What does this fold into?
Amino acid sequence: MALIEAKNIRKVYNHEMVPLEVLKGMTFDIEEGEFVAIMGPSGSGKSTLLHILGFLDPQTSGTCLFNGKGMEDYTEDEIAHIRNKEMGFVFQAFNLLPRTNVYDNVKLPLIYSDRPEKEWHDLIMKAIKAVGMEHRLEHETSKLSGGEKQRVAIARALVNDAKVIFADEPTGNLDSKSGAMIMKTLQELNQQHGYTIILITHETYTAEHAQRIIKIIDGQIKSDHKVKKRHDANHGFKK
Amino acid sequence: MTQIMASKNKMKIIPQIKIAAKGLRTHKSRSALTILGIVIGIMAIIMVMAIGKGAEDLILDQIRGMGSRTLSVEPGRMPQGLSDFAEVYTESLKDREVKALSNPNNIRGNNEIAPFVYLNATVSYGNEKMRTMIEGANRLWMDILDVEPEEGTMFTDTDVKQMARVAVIGSNVKEELFGDSEAIGKRIKIKNINVKVIGVLPPTGVKMMMNIDDIITMPYTTVQKVLMGISHYHAILIEAETEEMVPGIVEDIKATLREMHGITDPDKDDFHVGTMEDAMEIIGSVTSVLTLLLIAVAAISLLVGGIGIMNIMLVSVTERTREIGLRKAIGATRTDIISQFLIESVILTILGGIIGIIIGAAFTWLIGFGIREFGGFVSWRFFFPMSAVALGVGVAAAVGLVFGLYPARQASKKSPIEALRYE
Ligand SMILES: Nc1ncnc2c1ncn2[C@@H]1O[C@H](COP(=O)(O)OP(=O)(O)OP(=O)(O)O)[C@@H](O)[C@H]1O
Ligand SMILES: [Mg+2]
It folds into this structure.
């Protein structure tokens, strides 16, 4: 059984009474331990798809299973619990808490978890070290650089030992050097720690860090293939 | 609360409080303005409880000072409620009535009786002048007040019979007219009539709602005939031998006066009889009306304060849509979000409550100080019960819960996606 099974997913928004079909039937599986990049032009429905895969938003029709079960099989509280325990999110805009330091931002998911408080510190430090931010613990997030913010957001996604990390354009707002560092971090998490990573990007050189690329255009899958040859981590960023 | 405890992700209350406190700290001045209504409401409650209780005790004390054996017969019918103190003025109590009420054939028991008249007048001694109240009575009056001159003596029944031009003066009157010099034996002028000071009362403060230090007491005959030139009395005080006899005496007085005045319909009475018990009942109802009024004011202020809290929490919920979305996206349940915002509003209102209690206590103390020092009510006690503190905090917390619930529910209903997309 694949970790994620998407069958004929459709999503229709009712935008000011006019139905807008953003996803027009998508089918694919994602195995545990995979590093998948989802590519497509702006407005093609990438974020929408990611939110459905991550149980943040229900699909209009079709099925989307995580560990063999869909969003509709759970109560709202159970879904919150699954998002907290099994999934880590890195959002398109960093979505860190302002006026709050790095440490407390990373702690956030633990507050809503059932982990005993005495384990928190070790988990937070482990996640912060994994993204190399241990020298900025007390910094308020508003005083960090864009790349640093994104790394804090990744640490927050890691802190509760999620199985899957959903990352929506984690390098979108970054210069090429910071982007490369983020991608290296994600690659390490995938290869050395076994995280399943689903990443959205519209840049080919970013997508090539993944093992598999799903291209979508206009709400439909255009191609879905394995990346043959892995590029050097910095390739493509140095233009 | 049981819902929170039963929540599947066991909610951690301490982190939740920390989150809420942080949320408030980031908007300090707004939070401060928001709780103003709560501060005022709780302050009002505290002051109602403390001053209201103090005032009631004080007034009851004054009435008790009259003694439970004392009755007062006054002209005119009984005032009907608060707005009817302008009783029908009559001259229905004269010597004839005094004589009838002194007669054991009419009124049971062996009672003492004191006709009573009063007059507002200017008193002078040399160049010193003051306006004051002149009470015309006899010895019984001093017994009821329970004071004795500290210098000189009280006038006698012979003085009363002979309409002697003598006076016993309060300590303030002495101070005003004579300063430090001797007053006994001096002649003061009231309405151009010379009156000899034969006694000075010690500082006594307020008794029976009169500041004894400010008044002059003279034989009732002198005040009535010499100073005022009238033949009626303002009251006739009667002291029974025992408290148990009072109700029977009241009946006897009514029967006697009705017969004398040819009254068959009690509604047409041209007099009324007051006892300490009656007075206490009236004061009790007056203070409970006042307390109700003040509680209404406090309630309105708390309502306004609560709406202010609700308003500001709704603004806060809208402003923090992204934060709420994020929290839900990473695993916060509805209950978590509800409790976060509820804790915020309860912290706000409890803070307001504590400030209100402190300010209320300070005002209560100040007002009590004023009443004691400047109003002459020496028996005023600073009254500040722990129950008022508990009530203040409890009411504040309840306001926070009630008015925080709607904004908190609004916050919890936000879908994480809508919230994260919100700009
Ligand atoms: N709540 C909504 N109501 C109506 N339309 C929506 C809503 N959310 C998204 N859309 C529309 O759905 C389409 C797909 O949006 P989505 O955010 O998935 O695009 P995307 O591929 O992530 O784009 P980008 O690369 O710019 O982030 C867009 O046209 C967007 O306007
Ligand atoms: Mg997007």
